[in-house]
Amino acid sequence: MAFTDPLPLIPSPISATAGQGRVALAPTATVHGAPAAASTLIDAVERRTGFRLPASDRADDAAISLLVDPATAGAEGYTLRVADRVEIIGGDEAGLFYGIQTLLQLLRDGDEGWGWLRADVADAPRFAYRGVMLDVTRHFFPVAEVKTVIDRIAALKFNHLHLHLTDDQGWRIQIDSWPLLAEKAAVSAANGDEGGFYSKDDFREIVAYAASRHITIVPEIDLPGHTHAIGVAYPEIVEAPVLNDELVRSTALWGQKLPVAGEPYTGWGVGHSSVRIREEGTYDFVRDVLTEVGDLTPGPYLHIGGDESLGTSAEDFAHFVERVSAMVIELGKTPIAWHEAGAVSGIAQGTIGQFWGGVEPSEAHAAEAAQFVERGGSLILSPSNAVYLDMKYDADYPLGLAWAGLVDVRRAYDWEPTDVLDVPADEILGVEGPLWTETVRSLADAEQLMFPRIAAVAERAWTPADGAELTWESFRARLGAMAPLWQADGIRFHPTSEIDWSTR
Q: What residue range is the signal peptide (predicted)?
C-alpha cells in the first residue's frame, strides 16, 4: 500500500496514493452516472456543503463520472481517481457506492473553499460480512432513527444490519398469526421506557431503505431464552422465571425488580426465561413467527439467538436448537445463532455461529464456536471485550456496562480476527459490532457509544490484515480527521482524549 501521507480514509483502502493539493469543487460541477449513484453523491455533497451539484447525461464533459465495470474490480470493489476530473468505477453497484463513500471522506473545507483531496485508490473488502447489531428491544428505535443508523454505518462500508427484535423486555415485530405480541408484549422496554413495534409495512420500509444503501437486514428472534415478553402475551408458551443467584445479585445491585411471570420486565438481568421446550405448541409458534419474519426479509439469514439460556437444561436446549435450526433451513434461509448453540452436536448443517466471547476465549467458548465450522458453517466474530459497542469507554463514562471490561478506542482497534479462534481463516465470514441498549435512552446515547469505536470495527472488517496503514498510530490520525465530517452529518460522537480531533 502506497501513501505519501496517510489519506484521511476509514476504513483504510488496499491501495491509495495521495496526490498534491486539492481539486476545487465548484457548485456547477456536473455528475454523470446511474441515477441512484448520482443521487447518493449529490445529496451527500448538499448536506455537507449546502450546494447541490447538477446531474448530467453527458459523460464526456462531466466533472464527476460514476461507472460500473466488472472488469475493473471484484464484488464490492472499486477504483477512484481524483485528478482534474473525478472518476469512480465500481466492480458492481455496491462497489460504486463504496467508492462514493471514500470520495466523500476526501471532501474537505479549506481557506479556498470546498475541494477534493487528490488521490488514486483501488479497494475491495476483506470480509464478505461486515455488520452492526442494533438492539431495538431494550430501547425501541422508530423507523426514522433506524434509517439514520443505516446511513451512519453505510458510510463506513458496513453491509449488514442485525436487528435484535425480541428479548425479555419487549417484542418489536408484528406477527399476524400471533397478534397479542404487538398488543401486549411490545408496550414495554428497559428502565420502564416506552416500547413499540414495527408493523409489517414499517419493516418492509426498513428493509428497502437498507437495500438502497447495499445493506442486508438480519432479523433476530432470540430463542429459547430471552423470551419473557412472549409470556406477557401468551403465557402458555413460556416457563415460569428461573431466579438464579446471579440474576438476584445483579438485580439488587442495579436497584431493579425481579421478573414476574406474565408481567412486563424492565430490568437488565438475563437467563431467567425459556419457552416451553417440550410443548408442541411452542414449535407451532416458532414456525409461524420465523415464516412471517422470513417472508419480510429478502436477505439469506434468520438469526435464532441461542444465548444465555440459563433457565433451560442442556438436554432441552439441544432439542430446541436442533429442531429450530432445521426449521430455518426448511424455510429456505441460513440460520445464525450465538456461539452457545455450538454446544449442540446436531445443530443444522451450515448454521453460522456468532462468537461473542473474548479475544482470548475460554476453552468452552472456543469449542462451541468451532462446532459451527465442523458442521459446515462459518463464523461471525463479535468479541465482547473488543467490539461490543455498549461497553463503557472508561470506568467513569455515564453510558454502557462493563461486564466484558472497559473498551476504549484502542482496545476496539488492536485485535486481529484470525487470531481469536483456532479455525481456518476462510471460515471467518466477517465481523460485527453489537450495540446492546440497556443504558441507551435516545439515538444520541446510541451514537455516543457507537462513535468513534464503530470506525475501528469497520476497519477490522474491511482492510486486509497486511495493510500498511493497519496500525494504531495511522488509525488514530485518520480517525481524528473524521471529526469535521461527522459533525457536518450531525453525528454525536464521544470526543475521547485518546484521539487528536481535527477541527477542519
A: none
Whether 308 is catalytic is yes
For the four alpha carbons of 107, 110, 113 and 119, in that order, the dihedral sign comes to negative
> Omega into 361 within 30° of 0, i.e. cis?
no
pLDDT in tens, 446-501: 999 999 999 999 999 999 999 989 999 999 999 999 999 999 999 999 999 999 99
Contact 136, 162 (CB under 8 A): no
The three grid cell numbers given for residue 264, joined into one nine-digit string: 412486563
49 CB neighbour count, 10 Å cutoff: 16
**11 upstream amide cis, omega within 30 of 0:** yes
List for the chain the helix, strand, coil content (%; round to 5).
35, 20, 45
Q: Cite the beta strand spans of 377-427 per DSSP E.
A: 379-381
| Owner of C-alpha cell 442485525 | 162
DSSP lists the bridge partners of residue 334 as 301
Spatial CA neighbour of 275 closest among 285, 265, 266, 267: 285
CA proximity to 221, closest of 165, 151, 159: 165
What is the SS3 assignment for 108? strand
C-alpha 93/C-alpha 78 separation (Å) is 10
Integer Cα distance of 15 and 2 in angstroms: 6
DSSP string, 328-369: HHHTT-EEEEEGGGGG-TTPPTTPEEEE-S-SS--HHHHHHH
H or E element: which one contains 432? strand 428-435
pLDDT digit string, tens, across residues 7-37: 999 999 999 999 998 999 999 999 999 999 9
Q: Which residue in 90, 129, 120, 93 sits closest to 461, CA to CA?
A: 129
Per-residue pLDDT of 299-352, as tens digits, reads 999 999 999 999 899 999 999 999 999 999 999 999 999 999 999 999 999 999
Q: For residue 149, how many C-alpha atoms fall within 13 Å in the half-sphere facing its CB?
A: 31
Alpha carbon 49 to its chain's center: 28
Q: What count of other Cβ atoms lies within 10 Å of the Cβ of residue 179?
A: 11
Buried b (16+ CB within 10 A) or exposed e, 67-80: bbeeeebeebbbbb
Residues in Cβ contact with 500 at an 8 Å cutoff, skipping those fewer than 6 apart: 476, 477, 480
Which member of 308, 340, 368, 469 is catalytic?
A: 308
CA 2 to chain centre: 30
Residue 393: count of CB within 10 angstroms of its CB: 22
Domains and CATH numbers, the chain: 15-123 (3.30.379.10), 129-465 (3.20.20.80)
Find residue 204's DSSP bridge partners. none
SS3 86: strand
